[in-house]
Amino acid sequence: MLLDHKSCYEALVTRDPRFDGVLYVGVTTTGVYCRPVCPARTPRRDRCRFFANAAAAENAGFRPCLRCRPELAPGAAVIDSASRIASSAARRIEAGALNEAGIDELAAEFGVSSRQLRRVVKRELGVTPTELAQTQRLLLAKHLLTDSALPAVEIAFASGFSSVRQFNALFRERYGLSPTALRRSQSPRTPEQALTVRLGFRPPMAWSLMLKFLADRAIPGVESVEDNRYWRATQVCQDRSQSAGWINVERVESANALRVEVSLSLARYLPSLLARLKNLFDLDAHPQLIEARLGEDEKLRETAPWHSGLRLPGAFDGFEMAMRAVLGQQISVAAARTIAGRITEAFAEPVETPNPKLNRASVSAATLSQAGVADLTRFGLTGKRAECLIALARAVAEGEVKLEPGVDVEATIERLKQLPGIGEWTAQYIAMRALRWPDAFLHSDLGVRKALGETSPKRILGIAESWRPWRSYALMHLWNGLGQTQKQ
Ligand SMILES: [Zn+2]
User: Fold this and answer.
1) In the prediction, which pLDDT does 78 show?
2) Which helix (H) or strand (E) segment is 263 a member of?
3) Which of 186, 216, 386, 460 is the most exposed place for a label (fewest CB within 10 A)?
């Protein structure tokens, strides 16, 4: 199992969805087992038994809970469980999976038929995948009608509808008025060059520390941090230049929200872009619950200055983040940034933006997988590092490794470590950011050693035990205490 009893209980108390599918809890007094996201009252610690999968809970004599329904699909692996498939599918649908492709493609991602996927989602979430997608589209459309000056026709497509007629009909059916009637009730606006959307979060949020982390690692040409604002150029489909554009994000001072500006050229990809930004800025976290735990830890408090609202920087693009992690091995953050910029300039698609600092999309795994070692070593990385990068690009391009939240963390870490040149440090760091795993830990990290004044990996791991299952957040506190000057 990934977590021990104590950490499992901490995970249970917060109901953080990142632990869904990773652990199951059996309650000894009722004989029922649940997922960590179950809405039922949290049982007492001494009444809980934890399992890595539903089959193990059933073998121990527990019955599945009728509220959170942790039934198991064929196979014993965590990734096969029905709840895991349903929650991952819901996340993909929220990110626009059913706007860009059909239910067959989505089902194929999980290795099930579209009929099975429909059944599992309906049983787990009470709605069909199509209903889920429709609700997401409507909510986004309502948001855009209220907050943007985009014409209603464009809003239909930006929200993921495939036709204006469908948009009008569904909107009227659910909300009892037409999209244009809703718009008329708002004050008139002048048309803009970009779409503006708000993304809410649970306070507190240490926004400037998040920006500092991203600024230190920003890939020249692709990302930039200016005036408390994060900028990025992107191309959603690597083979389609009309899917290119730019994004910028700033904090709304008066609300617990980020203001996101997206170029009109990217309007049709809005759901997937918003999902990526939520990952990047860790907007789904429950900081109060995490801090209630870590803030009381004496060792952490005496080692690092406390920053309330410190978030775990995620990844906008999992492969880009992993590439940077490989480039950063044994060199400074600044040097890795320079090399990443050179590789991007040579291999990535150009993108036009209003920001003179941004002119490139991220390098795609598919492009880099075609490169030879000599194509990369001329940018200042060693032959070993170039081989590692190409192997990583191949694994991602071929779909053998997926670097996104919701995948099996343990299996992905193991698979990454089989690639030449990827060790524990890099695999854990990728898990922490690209997979958004809250309990990653870099016990061999120089910064961690320095912060803790310890060199023995065993003792460092021992100290970090009390931070589970939030070791990734504890690590951010340690790094911040050092001024973030460490590698990566
Ligand atoms: Zn339950």
Assistant:
1) 41
2) strand 257-263
3) 186
- Respond yes or no: is residue 445 known to be catalytic: yes
3-state secondary structure (DSSP) of residue 199: strand
Ligand 1 midpoint to CA 45 (Å) = 15
Q: How many Å from the N-terminal Cα to the C-terminal Cα in the chain?
A: 28
What are the residues facing 200 on neighbouring strands? 257
pLDDT greater at residue 52 or residue 170: 170
CA distances, 217 to each of 180, 265, 430, 436, 472 (Å): 43, 26, 14, 17, 18
Q: Which is catalytic among the residues 16, 20, 34, 68?
A: 34
Distance 47 CA to ligand 1 centre (A): 14
CA-angle at 459, arms to 457 and 465, nearest 5°: 100
Residue 49 CA to ligand 1 centre (angstroms) = 14
Q: Please, where are the H alpha helices in 360-405?
A: 365-369, 373-377, 383-397
- Interstrand relation of 63-64 and 32-34 (parallel, antiparallel or unpaired): parallel
Residues with CB under 5 A from ligand 1 (ion): 34, 38, 40, 65, 67-68
Cα-flanking dihedrals φ and ψ of residue 64, to 5°? -70, 140
Please tell me the distance from the alpha carbon of residue 83 to that of residue 471, in angstroms, as a whole number. 25
Residues 42-55: pLDDT tens digits?
Answer: 999 999 999 887 77
What is the distance in A from the centroid of ligand 1 to the CA of 340?
Answer: 46
Catalytic-residue membership of 38: no
Mutual angle of helices 424-433 and 318-327, in 10-degree steps: 150
64 CA to centre of ligand 1 in angstroms: 7
The 3-state DSSP class for residue 295 equals coil
**Residue-level pLDDT at 191:** 60
Residue 14 CA from chain centroid, whole number: 18
Least confident of 143-152, 320-329, 445-454: 143-152
The pLDDT tens digits for 388-405 are: 999 999 999 999 999 998
- Cα of 85 to ligand 1 centre, how many Å? 17
Q: Which residue has the tokens 């649940």?
A: 34
Distance CA 481, CA 485 (A): 10
Measured in angstroms, how far is the CA atom of residue 103 from the centroid of ligand 1? Answer: 28
Catalytic residue among 20, 80, 282, 445: 445
d(CA 193, CA 250): 17
Is pLDDT at 284 greater than 90 in this prediction?
no
